[in-house]
Specification:
heterotrimer, A alpha/beta (452), B alpha/beta (555), C alpha+beta (124), B: 555 residues, alpha/beta, Aspartate Aminotransferase, domain 2, Aspartate Aminotransferase, domain 1, C: alpha+beta, OB fold (Dihydrolipoamide Acetyltransferase, E2P), six-stranded antiparallel β-sheet, three-stranded antiparallel β-sheet, 37% strand
């Protein structure tokens, strides 16, 4: 077995030192009835590296990779070009195979990265502090609602209909068990968001109002009035950002008065990966720091006065606070945070602005071209790099037909909202810097054919 | 007040202010590296872009590359200026007047500078690739590179989770195959693959228990019992799920007190959370009896699977009456720890809890195709699911890695894994027990980890000092101050991927440090002296939290 | 004015029907460097043995219980601003809160200084 260094000679020598005759003897505490006498049945034996590679490659070949077709999917996960050096750097063994930096003297590498990452996230989101990452955007969203409850001591959360339905589903699932009352309505296929109804729904017992920016249909709103409405009634504004590149072109949620900003960082550095592992981003006001979930990295000095970094404010966390912890989260998304941070560093301010501008310009061009196809209507006139089209029929079969023609056309709202009511004719289309004019032309011709 | 049950009290030790022998402060290959905010400005970028002007979508015009030196705010001359607005004005009306006006303040580096920055930082990190990482309960085994290779196949890595299901059948098959392995290895009925990490999986298991009880009209049960040796995540999870955590005592031989548990069970108990093997590194001999007692009292059994590496391929938790168990793919199944994450925490379920498993999950249809059960199909036979725990489907990148690992070992290899893991831990136990107090060494073998206490150390020398001295010896310290039931606990888990030579070197170093501790060697209190940093002032970091770079302009 | 001690390592100075409460020097040395403290606000009603305050060190979080029942008149915000004060002078300037005693009979059964010292020795 190629990963097991012990030889039989080693094993014999060690058993002798221990004073037993076989490895089996070390399992005496396991009741006979529970001890399997041999390898568990119905499972194959070990396989060579070549055989495993072949098996996995066969499975991979059954999938249509995004890079192999014109690709226009978004809805919470975005395909961006990740510079080649990112993947090489995260595969350095000192990063890849290191652990949570609990012994800071020999983990300054990871700790400094986390400090840089926290600063980048806080800056991007327009907030004072950020943590060292959560599992993903959806669980970060739930944790924000939970944090709002702790801060305001109220238990009614108002969710915008523009929030990603998976995120809303996670919040509603968790709220069942924490007795938070969650109000949430499904979005309408229209250019207007529910911003005004949301503001009206905030009461004296509201802990927070949660909005997504840009929202699930790609729509964007000025959130400053909503922040004011929330604060006037003692509630918090939680903003969810699923596409961080948008903030390279648009005002940040923090600037608009958001109290907690959470989101998905997958777009930078991480890749699509069929849904995970992803990267939860979490930022807030400095005064709320002790209510934040997740790990935090802080600056300090060592015994010789040299600057260094450590995990800090650990008493919020479950391994110390146990049942009074701010969350039960243990792991963060370390390697993904590293990838995000490296990508952000390579981009810099200048590159992020350029990237955002290219995304937006490409999306505008694509929207313009696609709406010249008969029957295709643009529902959302204002967007960043993702917009919604209305087709004259249900879009799920159209998406499947386009996939058969080798075009990954977008996400059908019928898939996200299976209960109909008009949404099933909606199609969410994302256009990033990876989309070429040829891709757009192929898409336009194909959809024209399918709709005819 | 309950004062500091673990006894962990960081102390800085003595050191003079550093005076550098070199001008740079570097020491040959030990290189100091500033923050990006100190070495980079907002004017540099290491990425180039292409931009396709709208006219190209109409089938004409030229393509331009925008290099790093061109500011997006200054339109440059284009070859075809056919009445189009300047590049930066394109689509401006579509941003609803929400354009960013103020700079963010993000620094950028060229590629060579970025590669150097992160390479230098990586060299200040200990890792499994460098040496033994004997962290009890963490299972720091070798992370195979085949895993990395297969995870990066475009047919896995470059897939969108919401792509039409027909275009991702191979990916769904990976999830299904891995799930099948986990169910068979554990002797359970079904598996939820979506939880993102161990603690998330723990939450999944407890929420399924709660859903099951509510479905039976037993929602009034408000207590979950947890042994006093449990990891803090357990009571935190129970509290999060709306339960009160009650404590079960641990006997002098380190196991759950079955009699005390039986006495405590009643109509208010929803279930128990048992780690097996437990946090003292011992197998819970009474596990089946515990499960039977809990079931008889109307509750469910959650098993914390963090220590599964001790029994994988040899013992099936299903045979011990477990109803739900999370598995840490990043522990037992070798997916990389990545400096703190990401993890993956699938949960195996008994038949009783299976109907309540969260969405989404993968099913194989009668004609051999794979389908994804998301909210919409929940009505078709999955209406009892307690809901959704995360967006999308789970940690696919970890599934491919874990599946490659499992296929490589097979049933026979996995059996050898637990055998060697337990062998290695017992070897360390017996070679150290004369110098380090091992509270349970006399009662029989340990499982995959050995537990020591600070009994025998001279006055003023702590477990922390011993850990820091090990750093100088070139090892990452073992888990310290956990479990809480032993004073100054040191929990050592070598794993099966360590050679005898490495173990012997570790034993030598550990014995050397232990002798110094027993002799009262004061210099231990200033360790480490050889690492890139001396002990860090954690008090200052907590009293005056500095979580972002100070000079950053706030927007 | 007499000072009493609890087995939970709190001290209480009782003067008629007002009292001052803090944690003992032994407690602060066991905790290590204290990094965060939360004291109760005036008007809060405490029960004997009820959770009154929170004190955190780098690696531990502990609840401080009230030795007797009563109504808080003042919380020592100085130690919230500078937790190190409790390490420096736990049994003096590092007091936690003052309260109006509900029932002075609840002081019975608390230890005096000598008894507390014996108690701490027995823990070693």
């Amino acid at each position: 077995m190629r990963y097991l260094p012990l030889t039989d000679t080693d094993r014999s020598a060690m058993l002798e030192v221990i004073g037993v005759s076989s490895i089996e003897d070390l399992f005496t505490d396991v009741p006979e009835a529970a001890r399997r006498s041999g390898p568990i049945a119905d499972l194959p034996g070990h396989a060579s590296e070549m055989a495993v590679e072949r098996h996995m490659a066969t499975l991979a070949a059954k999938n249509l990779a995004a890079g192999a077709a014109p690709f226009f999917l978004g809805a919470g996960a975005y395909r961006h070009h990740v510079p080649a050096s990112v993947d090489h750097l995260i595969q350095r063994g000192e990063f890849l195979t290191s652990y949570t930096p609990y012994q800071p003297e020999i983990a300054q590498g990871m700790l400094q990265v986390l400090f840089e990452f926290q600063t980048q996230v806080a800056g991007l989101y327009g907030c004072e502090v950020a943590n060292a990452s959560m599992y993903d955007g959806s669980t970060a969203c739930w944790e924000a609602v939970s944090m709002a409850r702790r801060i305001t001591r109220r238990d009614k959360a108002v969710l915008s209909s523009g929030l990603h339905p998976h995120y809303a589903s996670v919040v509603r699932t968790m709220a069942r068990f924490t007795a938070d009352e969650v109000s949430y309505a499904l979005p309408s296929l229209s250019p207007e968001t529910d911003l005004e109804t949301l503001a009206a729904a905030i009461g004296e017992d509201t802990s927070c109002v949660v909005v997504q920016y840009p929202d699930i249909l790609g729509r964007i709103d000025d959130l400053a009035p909503l922040a004011e409405a929330a604060h006037a009634r003692g509630a918090l504004l939680v903003v969810v950002v699923t596409e961080p590149v948008a903030l390279g072109a648009m005002r940040s949620p923090g600037e608009m008065g958001s109290d907690i900003v959470v989101g998905e960082g997958q777009a930078l550095g991480v890749g699509l990966q069929f849904g995970g592992p992803y990267l939860g981003l979490f930022a807030t006001r400095e005064k709320f720091v002790r209510q934040m979930p997740g790990r935090l990295c802080g600056e300090t000095v060592d015994a010789e006065g040299k600057r260094g970094f450590v995990l800090t404010l650990s008493t919020r966390e479950q391994h110390i606070r146990r049942e009074k912890a701010t969350s039960n989260i243990c792991t963060n998304s370390g390697l993904c945070a590293l990838a995000f941070s490296i990508h952000m560093t390579l981009l810099g301010e200048k590159g992020l602005r350029a990237l955002a501008q290219v995304n937006h310009a490409n999306a505008c061009a694509a929207a313009e071209r696609l709406t010249r196809v008969p029957g295709v209507e643009l529902v959302t006139p204002r967007f960043f790099n993702e917009f919604t089209l209305r087709l004259p029929c249900e879009t799920r079969p159209v998406v499947r037909a386009l996939a058969e023609r080798g075009v990954l056309a977008g996400v059908s709202l019928g898939r996200l909202y299976p209960d109909g009511e008009g949404r099933e004719n909606g199609l969410v289309v994302a256009v990033t810097e990876t989309v070429t004019p040829e891709d757009v032309e192929v898409y336009a011709s194909a959809i024209e054919e399918v709709l005819a | 007040m309950t004062i500091n049950p673990s006894g962990w009290r960081p102390e800085m030790g003595a050191a003079e202010a550093a005076t550098s022998a070199t001008w740079t402060g570097n020491r040959a290959l030990m290189l100091e590296e500033p923050l990006i905010f100190e070495i980079a400005g907002t004017d540099t970028t290491g990425v180039d872009f292409e931009q396709f002007l709208p006219e190209l979508a109409r089938g004409g015009g030229s393509r331009e590359a925008t290099g790093g030196g061109v500011s997006p705010l200054h339109p440059s001359t284009t070859a075809s200026g056919s009445g189009l607005p300047p590049r930066d004005k394109l689509g401006e009306d579509r941003l609803a007047g929400l354009q960013r006006s103020a700079p963010i303040g993000l620094p950028g580096l060229s590629e060579p500078e970025a590669v150097r920055h992160y390479t230098r930082l990586s060299r200040q990190n200990y890792a499994i690739d460098l040496g033994l990482f004997p962290l009890g309960s963490c299972t720091m085994k070798h992370n195979p590179r085949l895993n990395e290779k297969v995870a990066r196949l475009p047919g896995f890595a470059d897939l969108h989770p919401l792509a039409p299901v027909d275009t991702v059948q191979g990916a769904l098959e990976v999830i299904h195959q891995l799930g099948h392995w986990l169910v068979i290895l554990c002797g359970m009925h079904s598996v939820a693959m979506s939880p993102k990490a161990g603690a998330h999986g723990e939450l999944c298991g407890i929420l399924a228990i709660r859903a099951a009880l509510e479905a039976k009209g037993e929602g009034h049960r408000k207590t979950i019992l947890v042994p006093e040796s449990a990891h803090g995540t357990n009571p935190a999870t129970a509290a999060f799920a709306g339960y009160t955590a009650g404590t079960i005592a641990v006997t002098p031989d380190g196991r759950v007190d079955l009699a005390a548990l039986e006495a405590r069970l009643g109509p208010d108990v929803a279930g128990v959370m048992i780690t097996n093997p437990n946090t003292c590194g011992l197998f819970e001999r009474d596990m089946k009896a515990i499960s039977d007692a809990v079931h008889a009292a109307g509750g469910y059994v959650y098993c914390d699977g963090a220590n599964f590496n001790a029994i994988v391929g040899r013992v099936r938790p299903g045979d011990l009456g477990v109803d739900a168990m999370h598995i840490n793919l990043h522990k037992t199944f070798s997916t990389p720890h990545g400096g703190g994450g990401p993890g993956s925490g699938p949960v195996v379920f008994s038949e009783a809890l299976s109907p309540f498993a969260p969405l989404p999950f993968v099913e194989k249809t009668a004609d051999g195709a794979f389908r994804l059960v998301e909210e919409e199909t929940v009505a078709y036979g999955h209406s009892d699911s307690f809901g959704r725990m995360t967006a999308f489907h789970g940690q696919m990148g970890m599934f491919t890695r874990a599946l490659a690992y499992i296929l490589s070992h097979g049933a026979d290899g996995l059996r050898q894994v637990s055998g060697d893991a337990v062998l290695n831990a017992n070897y360390l136990l017996r070679r150290l027990e004369d110098l380090l107090d091992a509270p349970f060494a006399a009662s029989g073998p340990c499982m995959h980890e050995a537990l020591f206490s600070d009994k025998g150390f001279a006055e003023g020398i702590s477990t922390l000092d011993v850990a820091k001295a090990l750093i100088d010896e070139g090892f990452h310290p073992m888990t310290v101050y956990f479990p809480l039931v032993v004073h100054g606990a040191m929990l050592v888990e070598p794993t099966e991927t360590e050679s005898k030579a490495t173990l012997d070197q570790f034993v030598g170093a550990m014995r050397h440090v232990a002798e110094r501790a027993r002799a009262g060697d004061e210099s231990l209190r200033s360790c480490p002296v050889e690492a890139p940093r001396r002990r860090l002032d954690e008090t200052r970091a907590a009293r005056q939290p500095q979580l972002v770079w100070r000079d950053r302009e706030l927007k | 004015m007499t000072r009493y001690f609890t087995a939970e390592h709190e001290w209480i100075d009782a003067d008629g029907d007002t009292a001052t409460v803090g944690i003992t020097d032994h407690a602060q040395s066991q905790l290590g460097d204290i990094v965060f403290i939360e004291v109760p606000k005036p008007g809060v009603v405490l029960a004997k043995g009820g959770e009154a305050a929170v004190v955190e060190s780098v690696k531990a979080a502990s609840d401080v219980y009230s030795p007797i029942g009563g109504t808080v008149t003042e919380g020592n915000t100085a130690i919230e601003d500078d937790p190190a004060l409790v390490n420096a002078d736990a049994e003096g300037a590092g007091w936690f809160f003052k309260l109006t005693i509900a029932d002075t009979g609840e002081l019975d059964g608390l230890m005096d200084e000598a008894a507390y010292r014996d108690f701490v020795d027995s823990l070693a």
